[in-house]
TRXR3 reductase (Grantiella picta), 211 residues
Amino acid sequence: VLIAIGRDACTRNIGLDTIGVKINEKNGKVPVNDEEQTNVPYVYAIGDILDGKLELTPVAIQAGRLLAQRLYGGSSRKCDYINVPTTVFTPLEYGCCGFPEEKAIEEYGKQNLEVYHSLFWPLEWTVPGRDNNTCYAKIICNKQDNNRVIGLHVLGPNAGEVTQGFAAAIKCGLTKELLDETIGIHPTCAEVFTTLDITKASGQDITQKGC
């Protein structure tokens, strides 16, 4: 039995209350604004201690670097906590970047989104005859912004490698049209994102009959 209990924010006994820094009493984490500034203007917080932010080491490193540049280097760049490529390294990997579908609906409204999705069959699964409808790819597009891709999700082999590559494209403003114009490398798992043509709203069957 594996129990994932998460991390404990040890903030209650370090004197934050003495200087008036507020914490979330439920989890001990620290609320901040979009510049990692707490309610006390001269106190900043970064990393896993942030309330509502991702608990990922690369995120903390990036946020710390950008904070230092803003405080001492005259920069104005802020950490992007939305377009963060993330992977769950389960036996069948899951990777994502950008908004989950539920959060995208909250942010933009369902009527302003188009979701494209498909099941797919990795080449290495064809010889052993593994289920050809286990892997899944999905993108979420903002119709009001030139169908810009605001969420990408993939369940399949090497999902982390696939997600890392597309994350850079998403940061550059990837759109559905650009994906459609991209020539896929055949036969790869990532290729599926260049051929997505079934929308979730259409209700069409996305099961695969072959490779």
